C-alpha cells in the first residue's frame, strides 16, 4: 500500500534556496511506495508539476500576499487537506499553533530542520558578534528557542541533515530516537555536463583563486576567511559570491578595499565561478548541510571547510581539509600548501567529484523516502502506538 505524505513549505516556491531542497526531496516519483504531495503557498510556473499544489489561487494571490495572509491561508489549507494523507511532513515556518492542530489529528509528524537547534545558533552568534565588538545582530529570541523545543516534543521524527545538526538537538535534550540523520545533495540538471565528467586540472597560468559562495556574513565566517587569506600572503585572489551583511562590510572594510578580494553580490551563473576556482573555502560557524559544498565538490573543487561547512559530505584528507573555523594558523597553512600544490589540488578535486556523484538529489530523495517508510512502518507496528 502506498504511504501518502503531505509535505508543505510555506514560502513562495521558486526552486531556489530552501524551496529547492524541499522540491528536490519531495519528488513525484521515488523507488519505494511513498507518495509526496507538496502544498506550497504559490510557486514559479517553472516548478509546477504533478505533485505540487498551490494553496493560494493565482486570481487572489496578489491580494493575499499584500495582506500578508499567505502563511495563515496555506496553514489552513494544509489542515483541511491532511485528512486525505497518512503523515505530515512539515518544513520550517509553520506556526506552533498549527503543529499542535496537526498533532491533535493523530497523524505522524515529520519535521525538517534546515539548521542547528536555535538555542545553539543563538549562543554561537552572540559570542561571535561580541568578539567582533558588535551587539547581537540576529533574529533569534528566547521565545524562538522555546517554541522550537515545543515543536520537537510534538514531532515524531526530526530530519537532521548533518551530524552537527543532530548533536545540537541531542544537547538540547531531544531524544535520540527522534533524530534521523540525513543529508542534502545537488541537482545535476543545474550542471548537466558534470556528473560523468572527471574534473580537468585547473589552469596554472592565472592567480590561485579561492571561492566562497553564500551570504557573505558573520554566521558563515566570511570575516575569518578574509583574515586567513590575507595572512597567507599568497599571490592570488579571493572571490566572495553573495549578498553582504552590513556587519561584514563594517568590520572588514580595509580587506574589502584590496584588489585581490572581489565581492560579487549577484551571480547569474554560479557554475562559471566554480569552474574558474582552485579551492572552495567555507568557514561557517553554523550550518545545516550547505548546498554550496555539494555543488563545489561536483565541480571538482578541493575543499577547505569548517566542521559545519563540511556538512555530511566532505571527508577530511580525502576531498579537502576540515579545520575549526577559529584555527587561523591551520587555515593559513592549508591555503599556502594548496596554492603551491596543483597536483594535490587535482587529486582532492577528483575525489570530491566522485564523492558528489553519490549525493545527487535523485539518490538522496530515494534515501529520504526509504527512511520515512521504514520509520513510520516501525512506529505503526510498535506496541506503544
TrEMBL record:
Glycosyl transferase family domain location, by residue? Answer: 203-354
Q: Which residues form the signal peptide?
A: none
> Matching Pfam families, A to Z?
Glycos_transf_1 (PF00534)
Question: What are the record keywords, sorted?
Answer: Transferase
* Listed InterPro entries: Glyco_trans_1
Q: Which PANTHER family match?
A: GLYCOSYLTRANSFERASE WBBK-RELATED
What is the name attached to this protein's record?
Glycosyltransferase family 4 protein
